[in-house]
């Protein structure tokens, strides 16, 4: 494993590189998580057959915070800066929750950087969110006391105190505030082969996942019209916070999708 820090947009952005071979797979974690908490069980399995690049977002894991709100466009800009720093021209991307929102910006605004994408547990539009999600805006440090999220933050952050952890929670509470949502036409325009995944009891509704999949050309009788290039997987027995707990299932989904030839290719 190789580790380092990339100077990007005022951040010292922590990254890890595991494995070798093929198109690099970029892992983007969710809010309040980090590389280890989100992908710790899955990453070694993915790195057995390919190079994997993982990074900690602003104020997460080993990456410092700056005087800036958390938004997908800014975090996407950080990721682009990281790829430029590493001189990596194109990647596959696997984003979960916040990381999936960031990956949405990459596949829609910067498709030349992405070969294939796995977008997990993040809505494209606000009407896809469940009303319970609003509780994120009310989170206090005391509510996560004793959890792995708190202990990992205090152990790894360049700002290892509960005051800065509360600042992170506050920023997550206003995540993407004021950022326009994607239109149906922008979703339809996605040209990158995409696997959507959602837990069957996730923060995103199943109706929204199906709507997005239909916008991407899915939900057809493929025996007669052919398989779409894009895919949808609903993960059984899955919540949002424990969305990657089915490690072996996700390994099969991710590697199977990334390694499969494009159905449109002879």
From TrEMBL:
- Superkingdom of this entry's organism? Bacteria
Residue ranges of the AB hydrolase-1 domain? 24-122
Q: Which UniProt keywords apply?
A: Hydrolase
| A molecular function GO annotation | hydrolase activity
Write down a Pfam family by its short name.
Answer: Abhydrolase_1
Q: Which SUPFAM superfamilies match?
A: alpha/beta-Hydrolases (SSF53474)
Signal peptide (UniProt feature, chain positions): none
User: Which Gene3D superfamilies does the annotation name?
Assistant: alpha/beta hydrolase
InterPro entries in UniProt: AB_hydrolase, AB_hydrolase_1, AB_hydrolase_fold
Descriptive protein name = Alpha/beta hydrolase
Protein's organism: Kribbella lupini
């Amino acid at each position: 494993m190789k580790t380092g820090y990339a100077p990007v947009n005022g951040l010292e952005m922590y990254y890890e590189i595991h494995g070798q071979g093929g198109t690099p797979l970029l892992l983007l974690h969710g809010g309040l998580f980090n590389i280890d908490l989100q992908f710790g069980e899955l990453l070694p399995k993915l790195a057995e057959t390919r190079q994997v690049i993982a990074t900690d977002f602003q104020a997460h894991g080993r990456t410092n915070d700056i005087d800036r709100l958390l938004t997908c466009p800014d975090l996407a800009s950080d990721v682009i800066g990281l790829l430029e720093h590493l001189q990596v021209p194109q990647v596959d991307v696997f984003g979960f929750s916040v990381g999936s929102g960031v990956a949405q910006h990459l596949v829609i605004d910067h498709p030349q950087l992405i070969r294939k994408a796995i977008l997990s547990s993040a809505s494209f539009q606000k009407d896809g969110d469940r009303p319970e999600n609003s509780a994120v805006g009310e989170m206090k440090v005391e509510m996560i006391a004793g959890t792995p999220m708190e202990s990992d933050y205090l152990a790894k952050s360049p700002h290892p105190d509960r005051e800065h952890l509360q600042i992170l929670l506050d920023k997550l509470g206003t995540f993407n505030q004021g950022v326009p949502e994607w239109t149906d036409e922008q979703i339809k325009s996605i040209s990158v082969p995409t696997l959507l995944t959602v837990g069957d009891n996730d923060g995103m509704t199943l109706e929204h996942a199906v709507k997005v999949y239909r916008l991407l050309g899915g939900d057809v009788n493929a025996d007669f019209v052919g398989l779409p290039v894009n895919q949808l997987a609903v993960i059984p027995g899955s919540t949002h916070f424990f969305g990657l707990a089915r490690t072996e299932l996700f390994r099969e989904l991710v590697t199977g999708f990334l390694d499969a030839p494009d159905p449109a290719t002879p």
